[in-house]
């Protein structure tokens, strides 16, 4: 029997990252570990992060979370995609939906090639016509039924989500310690972390430390000086202002991402309120201007004081350093355009459980974990950079910069492939599917020069008939669905917060 060297896990920080980590660890490895979470009410959490992607569902399955209970507790709504407005050029709109476009077939070419062929022949309508989730979201509808596949995520209240996860983790055995971490102790020779010392003098010793302290990276950066790769040259925004408003209409199952002259604005509908925010680059828009613009654009009574949040887009050089693993904002941050941050926390903690260093933290384990994490975050960086770079907007210095900036080679190659041959791909552990790339590439205005000629082997009448049937099946299914608001009211009503 090999010896278990790592048993005491200390989680520094109790935001979404800290409590996601605590809930997952105790659920999967509880009897093998002694888990302590330290958080400070005085410091508080970042308080945003309310839009998710479908991987949240599989993570919740892992934790055997009851969906209705979770949605009631967090005032959650369903999300079928993101509505991108004014991105390609002012007045444009497209939806990046979570749904599958067209029909999965055994053909050697993806559905969009057939659609492109139909377009070339003058029929086929919009690509959006062939996506069930997209059509449902546009109609403001939602339903779940046995045997009817629908791919969705959630909008949720970030504070209530952390509280909900805490409610799972504490009874399952996670010890919570309230207090401000004043000092981090290290082994004098190895530099490994040994204990957190709180302002009260309490020492919390551990074998493995998870840094979930947010942007400050108290362990991974302030103590271990790991280093950070700055990606501002690709993703220029560095500031956000968040504000909550009272709902003025039914909740739609879409996050709205509305571009403005120096960034974009989000709108996230929850059951009890709406989360809003403006994301911008402070070189091009002052905080006062951004706040005035946000408050001028939101609908409904403003419920909270607007709050400025600064960030630097980039990634920690190593997310696992010695016996410290950084999760959440402490590990890096890609701005929130595709709502990927909470997803990254969930993937990282799942991976840590799979690769848990029971026999001690080794360089080999850390190297593997770091390589996987880097691959994932670079893929997300590329996908989000695409939204800024592939634009015809020339109405402000910000968009001029985005349109003409240098982009990563990996993204340039993807764009060239689509431009030349309408090819898009998903490799290995890539997060974004072919349909995601296609929706954004076309939505932002990239017209491919050619496409796979397989579609020509189908005569025009057969292709037109197949497309018409697909569209009419989707239209019929959407027409039968209840409104998203009505579905929420019967499935998971949360009442007032
Ligand atoms: C503007 C913006 C919008 C976003 N939108 C989305 C979105 O739509 N979807 C999405 O997936 N993600 C989004 N994110 C990211 C998301 O908010 C975070 O990934 C998520 O909230 C996790 O944050 P965290 O737990 O790492 O950090 P935090 O919430 O900052 O938590 C840090 C914790 O560490 C504790 N702490 C810090 N220092 C100390 C100390 N000295 N002693 C004790 N405790 C300490 C704090 O008290 C707190 O509990 C957004 C982020 C920003 C900035």
Q: Number of domains in the coordinates?
A: 3
Low-confidence segments: none
Ligands, ions, cofactors: flavin-adenine dinucleotide
Biggest pleated-sheet summary: 7 strands, mixed
Protein name: Tryptophan halogenase family protein
Pfam families: Trp_halogenase
InterPro entries: FAD/NAD-bd_sf, Flavin-dep_Halogenase_NPB, Flavin_halogenase, Trp_halogen
Topology:
Elements: E1 8-12, H1 16-29, E2 34-39, H2 55-62, H3 67-74, E3 77-79, E4 81-85, E5 93-97, H4 111-120, H5 132-138, E6 153-155, H6 158-169, E7 175-178, E8 181-186, E9 193-198, E10 203-205, E11 208-211, E12 228-230, E13 239-245, E14 255-260, E15 263-269, E16 274-280, H7 287-297, E17 307-310, E18 314-316, E19 320-321, E20 324-326, E21 332-333, H8 341-354, H9 363-389, H10 397-404, H11 409-421, H12 434-443, H13 460-479, H14 484-491
Parallel strand pairs: 1-2, 1-11, 2-7, 4-14, 11-20
Antiparallel strand pairs: 3-6, 4-5, 8-9, 9-10, 12-18, 13-16, 13-17, 14-15, 15-16, 18-21, 19-20
Helix pairs in contact: 1-6, 1-8, 8-9
The protein binds flavin-adenine dinucleotide.
Flavin-adenine dinucleotide binds next to helix 1, strand 2 and helix 8.
Protein name: Tryptophan halogenase family protein
InterPro entries: FAD/NAD-bd_sf, Flavin-dep_Halogenase_NPB, Flavin_halogenase, Trp_halogen
Pfam families: Trp_halogenase
């Amino acid at each position: 029997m090999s010896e278990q060297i790592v048993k005491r896990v200390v989680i520094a920080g109790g935001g979404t990252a800290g409590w996601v980590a605590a809930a997952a660890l105790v659920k999967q490895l509880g009897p093998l570990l002694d888990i302590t979470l330290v958080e400070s009410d005085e410091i508080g959490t970042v308080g945003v992060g309310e839009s998710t992607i479908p991987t949240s569902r599989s993570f919740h399955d892992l934790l055997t979370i009851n969906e209705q209970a979770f949605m009631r507790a967090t005032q959650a709504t369903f999300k079928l995609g993101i509505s991108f407005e004014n991105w390609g050029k002012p007045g444009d709109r497209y939806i990046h939906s979570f749904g599958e476009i067209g029909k999965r077939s055994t053909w050697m070419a993806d559905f969009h090639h057939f659609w492109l062929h139909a377009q070339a022949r003058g029929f086929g309508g919009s690509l959006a016509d062939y996506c069930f989730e997209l059509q449902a979201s546009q109609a403001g509808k939602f339903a779940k039924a046995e045997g009817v596949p629908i791919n969705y995520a959630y909008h949720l209240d970030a504070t209530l989500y952390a509280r909900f996860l805490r409610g799972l983790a504490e009874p399952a055995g996670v010890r919570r310690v309230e207090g401000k971490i004043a000092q981090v102790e290290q082994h004098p020779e190895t530099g490994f972390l040994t204990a957190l010392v709180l302002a009260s003098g309490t020492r919390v010793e551990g074998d493995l430390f998870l840094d979930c302290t947010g942007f400050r990276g108290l362990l991974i950066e302030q103590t271990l000086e790991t280093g950070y790769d700055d990606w501002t040259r690709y993703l220029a925004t560095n500031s956000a202002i968040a504000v909550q408003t009272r709902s003025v209409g039914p909740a739609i199952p879409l996050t709205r991402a509305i571009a403005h002259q120096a960034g974009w604005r989000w709108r996230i509908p929850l059951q009890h309120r709406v989360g809003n925010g403006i994301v911008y680059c402070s070189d091009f828009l002052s905080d006062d201007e951004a706040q005035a613009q946000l408050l001028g654009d939101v609908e409904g009574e403003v419920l909270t004081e607007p709050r400025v949040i600064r960030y630097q887009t980039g990634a920690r050089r190593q997310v696992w350093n010695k016996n410290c693993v950084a999760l959440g904002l402490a590990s890096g941050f890609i701005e929130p355009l595709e709502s990927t941050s909470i997803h990254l926390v969930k993937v990282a903690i799942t991976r840590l459980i799979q690769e848990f260093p029971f026999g001690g933290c080794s360089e080999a384990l850390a190297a593997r974990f770091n390589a996987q994490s880097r691959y994932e975050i670079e893929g997300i960086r590329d996908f989000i950079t695409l939204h800024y770079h592939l634009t015809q907007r020339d109405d402000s210095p910000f968009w001029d910069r985005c349109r003409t900036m240098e982009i990563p080679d990996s993204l340039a190659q993807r764009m060239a492939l689509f431009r030349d041959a309408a090819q898009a791909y998903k490799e290995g552990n890539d997060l974004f599917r072919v349909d995601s790339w296609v929706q954004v590439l076309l939505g932002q205005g990239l017209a491919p020069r050619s496409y796979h000629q397989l579609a020509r082997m189908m005569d025009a009448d057969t292709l037109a008939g197949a497309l018409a049937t697909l569209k009419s099946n989707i239209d019929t299914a959407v027409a039968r669905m209840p409104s998203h608001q009505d579905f929420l009211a019967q499935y998971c009503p949360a009442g007032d917060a």
